[in-house]
């Protein structure tokens, strides 16, 4: 029996979709990229903020329109977890809404609803991974216990549940054996890793174990809570060239009154200290962050403070979310709310400022040489390839368009930056 899978939302959801696909294949359900061949369609939804919820709902209705008549639709993930009762009432055409379940139970539920014709004892297909063959995500924990006042993740995914170190190490070794070169460590907050399992934050312990793997790879750290970035962590990052000198540190805001209302347990001064420490110890470090525009009670002055901070710190990359009022969160009762038009305007202003910063940053990269992970050919002749340098995380930070690349050069090759267009760079391979 064949199924079609749609994975929405964050990289953590993508990892879930990959693991569910692998489990389904073991049960003789095979993935297809042609919806017309599918006996069932599995939609892994996102329910984080308004835009993401809207995208999930739109996708459900699109699939309802486009699915083959006989095919069943199964809806899973954060949106289904959060609004199970409401969704069942609102969209009765859906065959099955599933809450978040341990994968064993999930597979049982799926089998109960879409019985495979017969158990095919054929050769299992290779594990399906939805990222190009150069990078993969390793999710080191599920859920979050930080309880930021605006965030629904703890409501949806529960408290922090860390994966044991051995389990993570074997996943990484598996990925490297399969030829992946870039390992992206992800979680809601990787700096909280192990607090539940080992009684204290244990990211440093995990990193030392990862670095004991005698292979060449890129290790990228995503989603660090600023308050837990320690000098010891910085020492570990500096100790090994395999750790990419890039960190994604969501700060959300800088105004102390707003940070308190967000329950982020740090202040502007702490942010300045941590960023200062990182840049002093690792001058070439590339920092990404994410911000919330229009958090309740944010006034023009607070916003100006945030904008000035962005202009001063000059992050390599940043994303801005408009505040989304999420029921069941502490912040949902905060007033006054910032009007939608003002939220949109503030988001636009910050993104414009960031675009100017990226332009300046890209100018400084011209003529410099960097190792580049080369990924996909752009044209059928292989004249131009896409790749990324250390300061570009997958899917969010733009690409390098590389000329002069030959496959014999391997995954990683040195390139000289020639130019740029918006967030993307152009480069030539060094022979
Ligand atoms: S760190 Fe805060 S924003 Fe991030 S998932 Fe946890 S509660 Fe949500």
Blueprint (SSEs and pairs):
Elements (H helix, E strand, L loop, with lengths): L1 E6 L3 H16 L3 E2 L8 E6 L4 H17 L5 E6 H5 L1 H7 L5 E2 L5 H11 L21 E5 L1 E2 L10 H5 L3 E2 L2 H13 L4 E5 L16 H9 L6 E4 L9 H9 L3 E6 L7 H6 L6 H14 L4 E8 L6 H14 L3 E6 L17 H26 L3 E9 L6 E5 L11 E4 L8 E10 L2 E6 L2
Parallel strand pairs: 1-2, 1-3, 3-4, 4-5, 6-9, 9-10, 10-11, 11-12, 12-13, 16-18
Antiparallel strand pairs: 7-8, 14-15, 14-17, 15-16, 17-18
Helix pairs in contact: 12-13
Bound molecules: iron/sulfur cluster (SF4).
Iron/sulfur cluster (SF4) binds next to α6.
The parts where pLDDT drops under 50 for at least 5 residues are 117-126
Principal-axes shape call = globular
Instruction: Just give the CATH class of the largest domain.
Output: Alpha Beta
Q: Which CATH architecture of the largest domain would you pick?
A: Alpha-Beta Horseshoe
């Amino acid at each position: 029996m064949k199924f079609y899978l749609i994975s929405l939302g964050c990289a953590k959801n993508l990892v879930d979709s990959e693991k569910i696909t692998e489990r389904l294949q073991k049960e003789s359900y095979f993935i297809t990229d042609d919806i017309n061949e599918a006996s069932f369609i599995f939609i892994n939804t996102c329910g984080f903020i308004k835009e993401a919820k809207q995208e999930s709902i739109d996708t459900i209705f699109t699939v309802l329109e486009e699915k083959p008549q006989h095919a069943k639709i199964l809806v899973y993930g954060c949106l289904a977890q959060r609004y199970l009762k409401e969704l069942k009432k609102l969209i009765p055409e859906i065959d099955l809404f599933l809450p978040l379940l341990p994968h064993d139970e999930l597979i049982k539920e799926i089998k109960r609803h879409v019985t495979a014709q017969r158990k095919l004892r054929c050769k299992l297909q290779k594990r399906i991974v939805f990222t190009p063959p150069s990078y993969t995500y390793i999710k080191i924990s599920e859920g979050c216990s930080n309880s930021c006042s605006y965030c629904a993740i703890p409501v949806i995914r529960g408290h922090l549940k860390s994966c044991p170190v051995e389990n993570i190490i074997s996943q990484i070794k598996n990925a490297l054996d399969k030829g992946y070169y870039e390992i992206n460590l992800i979680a809601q907050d990787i700096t909280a890793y192990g607090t539940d399992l080992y009684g204290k934050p244990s990211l440093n312990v995990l990193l030392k174990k990862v670095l004991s793997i005698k292979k060449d790879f890129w290790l990228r750290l995503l989603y660090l809570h600023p308050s837990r970035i320690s000098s010891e962590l910085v020492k570990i990052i500096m100790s090994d060239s395999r750790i990419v000198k890039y960190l994604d540190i969501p700060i959300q805001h800088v105004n102390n009154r707003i940070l308190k209302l967000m329950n982020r347990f740090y202040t502007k001064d702490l942010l300045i200290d941590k960023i200062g420490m990182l840049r002093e110890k690792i001058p070439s470090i590339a920092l990404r962050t994410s911000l919330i525009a229009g958090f309740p009670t944010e006034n023009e002055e607070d916003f100006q403070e945030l904008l000035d901070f962005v202009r001063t710190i000059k992050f390599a990359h940043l994303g801005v979310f408009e505040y989304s009022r999420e029921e069941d969160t502490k912040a949902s009762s905060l007033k006054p709310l910032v009007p939608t038009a003002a939220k949109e305007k503030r988001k636009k202003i910050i993104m414009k400022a960031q675009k100017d910063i990226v332009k300046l940053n890209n100018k400084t990269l011209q003529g410099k040489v960097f190792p580049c992970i080369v990924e996909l050919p752009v044209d059928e002749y292989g004249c131009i390839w896409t790749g990324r340098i250390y300061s570009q995380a997958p899917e969010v930070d733009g690409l390098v368009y590389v000329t002069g690349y030959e496959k014999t050069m391997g995954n990683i090759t040195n390139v000289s930056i020639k130019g740029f267009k918006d967030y993307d760079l152009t480069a030539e391979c060094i022979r």
